[in-house]
Amino acid sequence: MSIRFTKMHGIGNDFVIIDARSQPVDWSAELAEQIADRHFGVGCDQLITIHAGTDGAAARYRILNQDGSVAGQCGNGLRCVAAWLWRDNPALPNPLLIDGDAGRMVCERLADGRIRAAIGEPMFAPAQIPFMADEPAAHYLLELADGSIDIGAVSMGNPHCLVVVPSVDQAPVATLGALLERHPRFPDRVNVGFAEVVSRAAIRLRVFERGVGETLACGSGASAAVAILRQRDVVDATVGVDLPGGHLDISWAGPGSTLLMSGPAQFVFDGIWNHD
Ligand SMILES: N[C@@H](CCC[C@H](N)C(=O)O)C(=O)O
């Protein structure tokens, strides 16, 4: 079987995007694992499929991680889906409505070519993350085999935890990230951010993504980091986030408001995936 796809990235967080409206797609963990494989497949952090939209949405998007697990949100992927939809049909409006498992998102192409996505309100209630705790808090102590660690936790439509570190360059992203991703208090596993606060308007961030490992960038991770640091009143409403693959601007006015994420969406190539 042959499947047409587009390879894209948002500051190095890379995706294979498949239009599931115009061709049959066997949406499965196995398909994601095969396509995402960097040696035997196309190679990507996430496989994203585009489905028919309803009620005014241009489309619906679904996300599978490299390991085949389902994700509810993908900030960088959402911007790429918006750019893909505008390329596919230049008559589509700007802003554009796109539905996902986390709800309805609004994407707007800015004058400088970047895309600003409204990705919803951060959710701090432990049951919504999901995270095992009695009540929402700005800090949680998480038990590890050799002590405990201070974390923040939030859902951006997908689960995130955050560790504040003195320097992201020295942070044990691979080891601690893998440990926290599967910590028993996160029953659905979790994306793990390591943030260095540079000022009230700037942070540096590395993210160990659930179902992938460390990626060059994570849009929902950048959003989660700003939401948690804003909850702690450590940063202002607008924050520049530097990730290994590039820069995102995040704005969150606070409870009751949607969070805004601005950044690029890049096409890499179009191709055809042939598989048995
Ligand atoms: N890279 C994405 C997040 C992808 C999903 C995540 N790994 C999860 O399992 O929740 C982003 O840019 O937000």
From TrEMBL:
Coiled coil: none annotated. The active site is at residues 74, 218. Catalyzes the stereoinversion of LL-2,6-diaminopimelate (L,L-DAP) to meso-diaminopimelate (meso-DAP), a precursor of L-lysine and an essential component of the bacterial peptidoglycan. One of its GO terms (molecular function) is diaminopimelate epimerase activity. GO terms for cellular component: cytosol. The lineage of its organism: Bacteria, Pseudomonadati, Pseudomonadota, Gammaproteobacteria, Lysobacterales. PANTHER family: DIAMINOPIMELATE EPIMERASE, DIAMINOPIMELATE EPIMERASE, CHLOROPLASTIC. Keywords: Amino-acid biosynthesis, Cytoplasm, Isomerase, Lysine biosynthesis. The record marks 269 as: Important for dimerization. Its EC number is 5.1.1.7. Substrate binds at residues 13, 46, 65, 75-76, 158, 191, 209-210, 219-220. It is found in: Cytoplasm. Homodimer. It catalyses: (2S,6S)-2,6-diaminopimelate = meso-2,6-diaminopimelate. It is an enzyme of class 5 (isomerase). The record marks 160, 209 as: Could be important to modulate the pK values of the two catalytic cysteine residues. Belongs to the diaminopimelate epimerase family. HAMAP family: DAP_epimerase. InterPro entries: DAP_epimerase_AS, DAP_epimerase_DapF. This is Diaminopimelate epimerase. One of its GO terms (biological process) is lysine biosynthetic process via diaminopimelate. Pathway: Amino-acid biosynthesis; L-lysine biosynthesis via DAP pathway; DL-2,6-diaminopimelate from LL-2,6-diaminopimelate: step 1/1.
